[in-house]
Write a sequence for this structure.
């Protein structure tokens, strides 16, 4: 059974810093890995999707990497801004169609 | 032009009542999902439908019954509501390629409170 872990559970950084969020999964036989952002009281916004055959994906200041062999993914945020404050969730598609979510990293970017 | 929409956004009801949550997607996707986010913010899949056919049914009490009248809609009906059903319920959709689901898009969520 797939298990997804995100460390740290919370992170606070000053504005402008580059940061890395970590995600690990137990079953390397994934189809894809997806990173989401969730603002308080809101739904999930998809940030990046990495297919199992890919090593990384980039969107603006965000870069997500995937290492299936080690069961790890990272989300790199460059030049963080207060507007980046949210909970970031990773989810692994360990079997067709089904996403297994981590518990999230709550990010606070201080002005 | 909302991609995945849910109604209602908030639902407050008494224990023992029956309630429904509706979900619609206008993305032309063929697969739809229901997820539950508990008080600790942990998200877990409940059901998945592909072309109106149930394909994932996790260990969920049979008081929960999904219904998909067409590819664009997946409703969730809950009978005999219990206090532990209080949570945020998210609908999502994706397009399949073979047996692989592509990027999933989520609705805004329905916050259910059972008193």
């Amino acid at each position: 059974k797939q298990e997804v872990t995100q460390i740290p559970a919370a992170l606070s950084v000053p504005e402008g810093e580059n940061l890395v969020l970590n995600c690990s999964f137990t079953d390397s036989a994934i189809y894809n890995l997806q990173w989401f952002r969730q603002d308080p009281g809101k739904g999930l916004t998809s940030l990046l999707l990495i297919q199992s055959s890919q090593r990384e994906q980039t969107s603006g200041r965000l870069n997500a990497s995937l290492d299936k062999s080690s069961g790890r993914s990272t989300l790199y945020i460059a030049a963080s801004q207060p507007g980046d404050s949210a909970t970031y969730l990773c989810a692994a598609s360990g079997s067709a169609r089904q996403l297994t979510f981590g518990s999230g990293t709550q990010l606070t970017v201080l002005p | 032009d909302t991609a995945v929409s849910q109604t209602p956004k908030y639902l407050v009801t008494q224990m023992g009542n029956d309630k429904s949550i509706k979900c619609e997607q206008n993305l032309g996707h063929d697969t739809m999902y229901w997820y539950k986010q508990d008080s600790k913010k942990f998200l877990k899949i409940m059901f998945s439908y592909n072309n109106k056919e149930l394909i994932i049914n996790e260990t969920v009490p049979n008081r929960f019954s999904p219904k998909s009248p067409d590819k664009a809609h997946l409703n969730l009906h809950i009978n005999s509501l219990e206090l532990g059903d209080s949570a945020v319920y998210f609908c999502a959709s994706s397009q399949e390629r073979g047996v692989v689901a592509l990027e999933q898009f989520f609705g805004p969520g329905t916050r259910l409170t059972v008193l």
